[in-house]
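In the design runs reported in the main text, the only information available to the sequence generator was the tokenized backbone. The following block is the verbatim input for one such run; it is reproduced so that readers can re-run the procedure and compare outputs position by position.
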């Protein structure tokens, strides 16, 4: 971690990566976390399409090998194989008013005679016993409105659609999963650029951006922390690699899980974690678009955010 990251961490507080554990009945059971998974997001060979690894151990294993090779198929848990890859869509495609902007691919390891449970896939590696497939896991659609931008994550295997919405000139994004409403909140830092998004379960009485209603200013009787019922995950780039290399870590996702010791490979990652991972990859892509100017973003880097 560099000097700038150390300064940023001191400004934003030592409690920056807290994930909360609870068994309270007013919190959905699928959020009763017992453990934490940290998932590096990396850039490979200067390609701006990013990959996400299931654990730091898996990332380090891939970095040691340097590329996808048959050697990585030998580990039964798929250690060293990326979990996901997000790619831009090269040809314009619209579904109604929504534009397909990105695809998320899942790397799926199975026996050579088995078939992945996805409609669209292609084999990328194999040996005598094991095959690795790149499967279309999620499509990301974008709909622009006068009030903001709505991203819809369409999961190919289940048909589920999960929204991520942010209002015009704001970076906070609200999402709804299994009936629960969450907010990816990024705190305003006046001196140092901040891209640390915290995913929290909203309290039921807090207006959601998904309702497309103006939220207005924060009521004086409500402390900012009172808006959030449970801290679930963090997206941040504080610990990104600094020096250029073929395998470059650009960000991390830290997320709560319902197992105490999550498996480090790709074969046993919970579905909820994969949903959060897709959302983190989208946030990474939006931050990259803004930094490179590839796509005009209405919000400047340090806009005061919804609180």
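Verbatim output:
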């Amino acid at each position: 971690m560099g000097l700038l990251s150390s300064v940023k961490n001191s400004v934003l507080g030592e409690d920056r990566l807290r994930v909360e554990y609870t068994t309270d009945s007013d919190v959905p059971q699928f959020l009763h976390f017992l453990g934490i998974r940290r998932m590096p997001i990396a850039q490979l060979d200067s390609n701006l399409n990013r990959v996400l690894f299931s654990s730091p151990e898996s990332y380090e294993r891939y970095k040691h090998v340097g590329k996808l090779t048959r050697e990585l198929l030998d580990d039964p848990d798929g250690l060293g194989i990326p979990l996901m890859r997000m790619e831009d869509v090269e040809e314009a495609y619209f579904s109604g008013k929504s534009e397909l902007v990105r695809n998320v691919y899942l790397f799926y390891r199975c026996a050579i005679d088995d078939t992945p449970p996805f409609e669209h896939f292609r084999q990328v590696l194999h040996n005598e016993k094991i095959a690795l497939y790149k499967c279309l896991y999620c499509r990301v659609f974008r709909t622009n409105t006068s009030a903001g931008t709505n991203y819809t994550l369409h999961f190919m295997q289940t048909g589920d659609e999960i929204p991520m919405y942010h209002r015009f000139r704001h970076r906070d994004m609200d999402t709804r999963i299994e009936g629960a409403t969450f907010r990816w909140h990024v705190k305003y830092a006046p001196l140092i650029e901040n891209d640390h998004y915290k995913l929290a379960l909203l309290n039921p009485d807090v207006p959601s951006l998904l309702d497309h209603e103006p939220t207005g200013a924060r009521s004086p009787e409500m402390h900012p922390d009172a808006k959030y019922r449970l801290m679930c995950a963090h997206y941040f780039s504080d610990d990104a690699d600094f020096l250029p290399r073929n395998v470059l870590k650009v960000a991390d996702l830290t997320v709560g899980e319902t197992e105490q010791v999550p498996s480090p490979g790709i074969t046993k990652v919970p579905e909820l974690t994969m949903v959060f991972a897709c959302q983190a990859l989208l946030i990474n892509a939006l931050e990259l678009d803004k930094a490179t100017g590839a796509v005009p973003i209405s919000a400047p880097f340090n806009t005061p955010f919804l609180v």
